[in-house]
Design a protein that fits this description.
- With 264 residues, the protein is α+β, with helices and mostly antiparallel strands.
- It is built from 10 helices and 9 strands.
- The chain has helices at residues 2-22, 84-89, 116-122, 131-134, 146-155, 171-179, 181-212, 220-227, 233-239, 242-263, and strands spanning 24-31, 40-43, 48-51, 57-62, 67-72, 75-81, 91-95, 160-163, 166-169.
- A 4-stranded antiparallel sheet has the order 3-2-5-6, with no helix packed on it. A 3-stranded mixed sheet has the order 4-1-7. The chain has a two-stranded antiparallel ribbon with strand order 8-9.
- The protein is elongated.
Length: 264
């Protein structure tokens, strides 16, 4: 059984490789009146995937009759079937259509008379209208940063999906691991997270710790960068415990001040 799985894996990989080899790189350009960075471009036929650059440009492998799907929250999904002329030119332009939610007629409420007692009795006061009520896409979760979204796009899903006796290889994830894109996005996300934590610690505790252990003004920003070098830093950022935060900062500040005195 194990040998059969290995043979299936190799066969599927070779099949994907052959399909990829038959395709050529096409330069694309997304056109819209708003932001066109980070939109998803998927070659459904050839199982190729990428995201658009800041100016809306992108590159993707394709051949004649492949179906390219462009999607994003702000725009309607666009499907483009690759024609022979697109292959010959090596270029395609896609004009995006803004995704607008049209609301039905809204009844604001009953006519008010100006009498507080009467109007309160006739009023049908309900909770505030939010995006759920209006049918507009929305979320109460904190939105992902651009680098977090890019990391998810580059590395989400399993390496191999099994469908009965068949399988599908996540070539996009494998290639991103090989070419280092996944590693780069992880480093960017880590840097962003550290910067957010440093900003939080500085805004919440700077006055307290520098009153307890004074240091020259010009070294205060450098001190918080000094904290990044400690192995406990990530743990402190994750638990967000005020007692642990202050204890950690005071301990590091004492060592930092001693270091400054030694240099003097």
């Amino acid at each position: 059984m194990q040998k059969i799985k290995i043979l299936c894996f190799i066969s599927a990989f070779l099949f994907t490789y052959v399909l990829t080899a038959q395709r050529k790189s096409i330069n694309g350009q997304l056109m819209a009146n708003d932001d066109v960075e980070g939109l998803h471009i998927l070659n459904k036929t050839g199982l190729q995937y990428t995201i658009s650059n800041e100016d809306g440009s992108f590159k993707i492998l394709a051949q004649t009759l492949d179906t390219i799907v462009i999607s994003g929250v702000k725009y309607q999904n666009q499907k483009v079937v690759i024609s022979p002329s697109m292959i010959e030119l090596g270029h395609l332009n896609v004009e995006l259509v803004e995704n607008i939610n049209v609301l039905k007629e809204v009844v604001v409420g009953k006519i008010l008379t100006g009498s507080l007692e009467s109007d309160m009795g006739n009023s049908d006061v309900k909770h505030e209208i939010n995006f759920y009520d209006l049918g507009i896409p929305g979320s109460t979760d904190i939105p992902a940063t651009q680098n977090e979204q890019r990391l998810y796009d580059a590395d989400h899903g399993q390496f191999v999906y099994y469908y009965g006796i068949g399988l599908s290889i996540n070539v996009h994830k494998i290639l991103n691991r090989i070419n280092g894109d996944t590693k780069e996005y992880k480093e960017r996300v880590k840097i962003e997270s550290n910067e957010d934590c440093i900003s939080r610690l500085q805004s919440e505790y700077a006055d307290v710790i520098f009153e307890a252990i004074p240091i020259p003004e010009q070294y205060k920003t450098e001190f918080f960068q000094f904290c990044l070098e400690d192995e406990q830093f990530n743990t402190i950022c994750e638990d967000e415990n005020q007692i642990n935060d202050v204890g950690f900062l005071l301990e590091k500040l004492e060592g930092f001040k001693n270091k400054l005195n030694e240099n003097d």
